[in-house]
Design goal:
Layout lengths: L1 E5 L6 H15 L3 E5 L15 E2 L12 E6 L2 E7 L4 H11 L8 E5 L5
Parallel strand pairs: 1-2, 2-3, 5-6
Antiparallel strand pairs: 4-5
């Protein structure tokens, strides 16, 4: 499984199309696409192939955080600190032991 992560393309929808075309051609159905926010698209159709979260510059109604499970590993992602509390609660609720861990990705260009 390949996971392609992109963030902060700030209105450049062509890069999303290019990334999708290249990696879906290479890996067929064995690839997932994640967008960590600030796509600044005005059409949800631009994000059809991506599992997305809302960035601080996005106007679309997108979730603050998302979770993806791959090979029994949970991957949590958000944009900056948006959704961080919900991610921590979700991790605590689904933790098998105090030693189990998931992955967390947060997008944000620049500081907040």
């Amino acid at each position: 499984m390949r996971i392609i992560i992109v963030s902060d393309n700030h209105g450049n929808q062509n890069i999303l199309k290019i990334l999708y075309h290249i990696y879906s051609s290479l890996y067929k159905d064995n690839v997932k696409f994640i967008h960590l926010g600030d796509s600044q698209t005005t059409s949800i159709n631009d994000l059809n192939n991506f599992l997305c979260v809302k960035g601080n510059n996005d106007t679309l109604d997108l979730p603050k955080y998302q979770r993806l499970t791959v090979l029994d590993k949970r991957i949590h992602f958000s944009h900056g600190d948006k959704g961080l509390d919900e991610i921590k609660k979700d991790i605590d609720q689904h933790r098998v032991s105090k030693f189990s861990r998931g992955l967390e990705f947060r997008g944000q260009s620049g500081g907040q």
